[in-house]
Amino acid sequence: MKFKITKPLVLFSALLLSFSASALKSDTQQPINVSSDNQSLDLENNIVTFTDHVVITQGSILIHADKVTIIRPNANDGNGKEKIDASGNPVTFQQQLDNGKLINGSAGKVNYDLGAQYLVLTGNARLKQQDSRIEADVITYDVQQQKMIAKNSGKGRVKTVLYPSQLQQK
């Protein structure tokens, strides 16, 4: 399986890799639509912030958050890649997979560093595809290494329920 992250909002689809199916490839080619009650732009620091009832769509991707901040480094920083922080009560997202199934997820905070290609969901993080699910305090995903780690911070345990027959169905 080969994946190419080409747009900031595809960060949520990186989570889908752990469920043995790929996100709709056409999503990355679709326009990104953002609506919110408020938006602010800090030109000097290259920061755009969307607040209050933020809804983001791109193809089959649908994201709801209370606040989304996109930070684009200055050209002199060398990295040149955005960092995206989303927070909510909770942040929720869904995306259709190539096989037509939906992936759903939620967390209190979602952070994605496009330069490092590293994604972190914190605060009651959950991923669900049909009846299969993962629940933990923190779920991290290294996009390049295609490695996911789910962990709890001392309280409780990571919960995973897998239905292999559902995950393998086309």
CATH superfamily, by name, is Lipopolysaccharide (LPS) transport protein A like domain
Secondary-structure content class:
mainly beta
| Average pLDDT, all residues | 79
CATH topology: lipopolysaccharide transport protein A fold
| Largest sheet descriptor | 10 strands, antiparallel
Number of domains: 1
Signal peptide: 1-23
Keywords: Periplasm, Signal, Transport
Protein name: Lipopolysaccharide export system protein LptA
Domain Organic solvent tolerance-like N-terminal: 33-147
Write the layout of secondary structure elements.
Layout: H1 11-14, E1 33-35, E2 38-42, E3 47-58, E4 61-71, E5 83-96, E6 102-113, E7 118-129, E8 132-142, E9 147-151, E10 159-161, H2 164-168
Antiparallel strand pairs: 1-3, 2-3, 3-4, 4-5, 5-6, 6-7, 7-8, 8-9, 8-10
